[in-house]
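Retro notes, structure queue

What went well: the backlog is down to a handful. What didn't: a couple of records were mislabeled last round, so from now on we paste the full input next to the output in the thread. Example, using alpha-L-rhamnosidase from Olivibacter domesticus:
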Amino acid sequence: MFKQKIITYVAILLTISPSLLAMAGDLVQVKKLRCELLTNPESVNNRQPRLSWEIAGDKRGLKQVAYQIQVGSSPDLLTKGNADLWDSKKVETDSSVYIPYKGKQLQSRDHCYWRVKIWSNMGESAWSDVASWSVGLLNYNDWKGRWIGLDRSFPWDREDQFSRLSARYFRKEFDAKKKIKRAKVYIIGLGLYELYINGEKIGKQVLAPAPTDYTKDVKYNSFDVTDKLLTGKNAMGVILGNGRYYTMRQAYKPYKIKTFGYPKMRLNLELEYADGSKDYISTDDSWKVTADGPIRTNNEYDGEEYDATKELTGWNTVGYLDNAWLKASFVQEPGGMPRAQMNEFMQVMDTLKPKAIHRQTAEIYIIDMGQNMTGWVKLHVKGAAGTRVKLRFAESLQQDGSLFVANLRDARVTDSYTLKGGDQESWEPRFIYHGFRYVEVTGYPGKPSLNDFEGMVVYDALATTGTFSSDQPMLNAIFKNAWWGIAGNYKGMPIDCPQRNERQPWLGDRTTGAYGESFLFDNAKLYAKWLDDIQAAQMADGSIPDVAPAFWRYYSDNVTWPGTYLSVADMLYQQYGDEHAIKKHYASMKKWMDYMWDNYEEDGLVTKDKYGDWCVPPESKELIHSKDPNRQTDGVLLASATYYHLIQLMRGFADLVGNESDKQLFEEKAARLKEAFNQRFLNKSTGQYSNGTVTANLLPLYFEMVPEEHRKLVFENIVEKITHENKGHISTGVIGTQYLMRGLSNNGRPDLAFQLATNTSYPSWGYMAENGATTIWELWNGDTANPAMNSQNHVMLLGDLLIWYYENVLGIKAAKPGFKQIRMKPDFDNPLNQATGSFRSNYGLIKSSWKKEKDVLQWDIQIPGNTTALVYFPTADKGGIYENERKIEDVQGLRYVKDDNGSSVFEAGSGTYRFSVNLTMSDEL
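Corresponding output:
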């Protein structure tokens, strides 16, 4: 027996419980659990969750050769060897990720407990700890009770462009007649909710549930509340906020902005008593409701107002007198199928202390949080009853020190708190968020101090999976800015910005963005959910909007924005090894591809483009968009090149789903388009496509559309354009920047990619940082352009920069889907001298840390269990490569594979390695 660990990951349909048993000796350890989005809750596959585990050991080259999974209906049965739901027996395979459950058919509300053991090339493990999953409400008829709400406003509300609608407070008292064995609550609270039992808030989530198109899909959340209930009298309370359901701009541009109605809810509480009997509490007209509470308005764009003099003390506890409250009304359901929310909740993930505070006028103070963040401010204050403190938010200041709000458009971004008086009071909003660095405080009684405010950082509770540092401070600063920008724009869906009157899930912003983000955050469940949002937004004819969910109705029929549907599905496969997204969405993706070809194909090209190479650096720093045709890339070229790339993805998808006829059709279409593209756009004598912008030449080069004999010249044109005409600076917009850094590095110019990444003069990512940015701007000239569009927290201009950080600088790239095999090939011949970073894949932690000193390269790597890596050393002389001072050819577990353009390639099994390479013999450095 050898010392090894199995870290289990469990995919469930509704909830996940902590490990239930102690460690099974020191041979096996369950270090953490993870809930994967694997199935669509309304399909039969929701009865077949997939199970994954992570393997680690002390010895190198650890590989699984077989597994055995046991699933039982109770932990006691399981540990006694009675796997009454499923015993896979010994299955000979090295698969340890996404293993489908194949036991007895699961039903709504089932609780399942599972464990796994493995056989490896080094021996057999003990059983893992027991983990669990629960099955949700699979069928519509599993829901009891009805939807309730109040389908009207009140005299203190206002419904117009700047709507004001107060929160609804619901309450219900009930008896738990016997000793409770288990209690679970299922809730759909639209737009947003907070749930209380006996005065205590349930769960750590905020701004729940995740937003969807509620006419097609509504998310429910569930909680085990066994320890919150008492035998006898209990009270439940729910506050409903507006969220995306009752939209921020009522009666304003109804042709564009989708609205859904007034807040409403449906709730089921299921009680299982110790004697085996059950009881159900559900929403009906016995619930009481009031809108005359302290939350007077809550509006994502404009803020939240709270009047503490109107607090309903004890409203969510037993015995509260609710005689003045209204009877809840039965209301129309939203229309969407209730489905369990499988992506992570939003939470308060961090708390920031302000860095500075200064007095602007006699009544106004300005707080600097020191970081452009997303969330809200928690206020601590003491004063007379009726005193009103206002907090207004912005990303930057004007020259006189006051807030700069012109870039927020008509978003009023103001919270207010009216004191009840007496002791010190603390308050934070519930149903809004802001994107900000600075806070204007008005009406604060006395002189405020830094300790009176806390910045509550809110984003989806995704694990941070990637780290990076180097000896180049600007690279490190940009990486940090990217992290803050990405985190701030995760809001149950990927949005474009968190501060102005937009905050929409634009598809084009994440085409490669999702891929780069996946190195920093475990974003698989978020993007799987987003694919469902896109599919739900697809029209019957196949068209896909530019924003999904389609809160804004933008069906503009272009290629580059909706094409993100395919690229995100491909990301989930390549980065996480999840085929499910491709198989689930294949028909819808093909339907869109056919729609675009059938409607916009002319002479073998796809002609429809809407946005061009969005946000190229303009000729004047005061412009938002360039007006110089020499900087703009032909829309037909953009659409056709991108469509060709998407055809290649669909060809791979067809292969994956086993559709040979589709695969053949895609190959034929690709050949036709490629020929027409080169005929139309390639100048063979100059090696230039169209008008020769970097994007015009880069896309066909990166997508392998350029005839082999012209590739060198086309790339030389790109280099010439960047180095001379653009003086070593970036000239691409959203589309070109998605392939720029890899396009340069993979074609032999990592030094030029490094220059673009570390520039500090305009236009560059470094220019943003040098000019005070702590996130990523929407525009390269976000400090000087017209305020109508210069969000200071956008991520679309990151392009493939983060991919370059990991795949080219650190050399961490998936050689096989999901990092079952890793390609470790840093660009050692860039000007960096040191880089260190890590990425946690589904198989475990991958590390790469290298340092160049004089004529020696030191390189430390870590490879997770049950994987292998192809390690590229920058020398053809194997005799100059050592591992822990031993010649590499003498090291067990390392196998020479090949010579690759002067690099020696070895295959390495799992483990940690310390290499040194003699660079004096290398032609590469």
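Agreed that this is the format going forward. Reviewer comment attached to the example: The two ends are 45 Å apart (CA to CA).
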